[in-house]
């Protein structure tokens, strides 16, 4: 499967992060693991790309961060969805569904 | 939003600000460690696991950097948001505070509107006349040239010259790109629709080059169209062409009927053409030179010139000086002591208003300053009343900077509302000033433009900070604990009272300074109004006629024309008398001639006496109401072929024959060639030729009928409104000769009025400012005393309970006001003495330290101040001791 273009990747990654965090507060490492497991590493070729995405989402006010203690007792930065982030996720999911439906319709009728 | 937003920001900056980089590093380090541990647990050697973790992470430096950049941006966003949010909060809070005390707010806005409005209105005049470039092409190169007499210091700017002298300047000067004489012209247009009188000018062909006008249709004038006998052709303004000829593109070459005569249209100027009066009319005609009228002393033409861009003014003046000297040598009689003034157009437009305008702007700023001091006082009083509020806010953690900012927001908001009201006021005032101001202001396209708006906005901001700063600092630095203690009200009154006192003193001092200045101007004006101009201007119509030499070749024909015209004018109903004269007092004409007294010898022409010459018909003295002092006036018999006679004024009599009568004395020259010796037959009163303010030197009157000029002004005295007579007089002129152009129709009263208009304008405005200032200062004083009384109600009650009389209480309060006033007057007198010297040039017949003004104004201020303190004093005396003592 060829790698999608960067812009698409970026937008997709943002939605995935929001989706991941909708399960509850997580640190970046956990988010990375979660995404890798679900997508078989297709959408996160370089794990580092996750961090600018997290900071970008925080700047937009969709997620917020707080230092806390990880499961193995280390200092870790936890992210959590804000109300606005949750709304954003809902909007993104709807539009993704519509988009995917449209694309698959086109591809199937081909 | 947190309860106290001011706190959140510095806290966050301490925790996060400097650590963004570390924060990102720690976050990424955690990730790498976790991944390495996981890989190690899966069986990789620790070093390999770390390398693999790094590899899976990707470009570590790039991602780290991205995170830092985004985090910093987020930090900035939040800071900006906090600031905007705090500002919004401050504004909302300030608006609520202002709404809560509508009385205070209304007074404050009124004060600010008056101060900012006055300052902005004057600034609009200053901006239009002194700052904005004149609306002509390369205006800095434009100038006016005019002659003045080296013997007359009062009229150094000169006004006009004669065509003959102009032609010599034009031939000799090399500093100019162009130079043109201009004469006002108001022909009547007939045919092709309603007849109308139009505003026009006759010009030397180079006029269009001077003002850089390129006709959009046809051409401008050709150099040969200034030559003798040239037909008058016309160039139309764009507006006139559109209005009257519907923008007919085939107009060039057609004729239009002006004064019943067909004139060919040779061109149309583009819409953007702008020139100063009298060139701002509907059309222009060429002004041909008339050699038979080589009248060097017919100084009635204005000259506009464009200097070459590389020639400095000093060189222009030097060249003109040399030309004037050559002309004086060549024509010693006509050009005796005649110099050429070079006046840049800006100076000519602004004239003598330059200094007064800055003075007025200063005065308006002083009014604004009083308003500020007044507001500061009001705010301090409010600040004391609100001290508890701020003490509580401080106790809850709001910092002082924050409190100061809150108070400043209030005053800037107040200033903004006041500034908007002031700008509206300035808009109205400016329109009014532009309508009633002196000529320069009316012609200066004075209005509220972006400069004025920017000025007002800046002024508003500065004002808001200026009057708000002291009270804000004061309120914010009051001791928290003092105010949280019950019953500690008024504990700051010591320092507060001193500060408020100082502010009142400065208001009184400024008001006094303005009052002194205004009083000096009013007294000057009153003095000037009492000056006898030597003539009675009311009811006199003036107009100008120039007879073409082709139709009026002989002195007899010219004499006959003017004699007949005067007879016909005198036959008109309501007309008392009419006359012709080559020179009108106060109009800007001049005709200064050198001459000899018989029996005296002169080593050089420069030793000869000079006098202002008027060539007049016998009715001139009656028409202008000039008094006969001794001997006789001119009669119809004093004409060509009779004995040469003249009349002189008493100033010339005193100058030439001190202690003797001039009647019977004989004068050589002045009436024509050197050989002509005239006998003085009468002495009349002196006339102020250059304006009411200056004596003009000697004057002499030569009989017109003995030396009939082709160029003459006609004066008609009527019982009623002279301008209402204008059309009837025009009809008489037309009946005699339908082709004659008539120029400059106006009245003697307008000349006199124009000579004092600038002064009246300045006096009126300064008077208004002084009036506003004294009211503001009185209100300020009242406010301070009334406030002091209200703060001391308990003390007053106690005193009365202990036996003080009402009169004692009144006296105690009034004394406080009197002391403040006395200090204010002392400071104000010192300031006035120092500053009225700036207006010495505006004073007439009054010294800058006129004792009556210097004593009267303080007395007036004291009277007003007493009234302002007596009102609160009376209230203090009515305090009921029982009520007052129980109230706390």
Short description:
Chain A has 4 helices and 3 strands. Chain A is an alpha+beta fold and 110 residues long. In chain B, the strands form 3 sheets. In chain B, strands 1, 2, 3, 4, 5, 6, 7, 8, 9, 10, 11 and 12 form a 12-stranded mixed beta sheet that branches.
What does this structure look like?
Chain A has 110 residues and is of the alpha+beta class. A three-stranded antiparallel beta sheet of chain A has the order 1-3-2. In chain A, helix 1 packs across helix 3. The longest helix of chain A is centred in the C-terminal third of the chain and has 27 residues. Chain B has 888 residues and is an alpha+beta fold. Chain B has 26 helices and 23 strands. In chain B, the strands form three sheets. In chain B, strands 1, 2, 3, 4, 5, 6, 7, 8, 9, 10, 11 and 12 form a twelve-stranded mixed beta sheet that branches. In chain B, helix 5 crosses helix 13, helix 11 packs parallel to helix 15 and helix 18 crosses helix 21. Chain B is globular. The chains are: A alpha+beta (110), B alpha+beta (888). At the A-B interface, helix 2, helix 3 and strand 3 of A face helix 2 and helix 4 of B.
**Mean pLDDT, all residues of chain B:** 85
Please give the count of helices of chain A: 4
Total number of strands of chain B: 23
Distance between the termini of chain B: 39 Å
Approximate strand percentage of chain B: 5-15%
**N→C terminal distance of chain A:** 20 Å
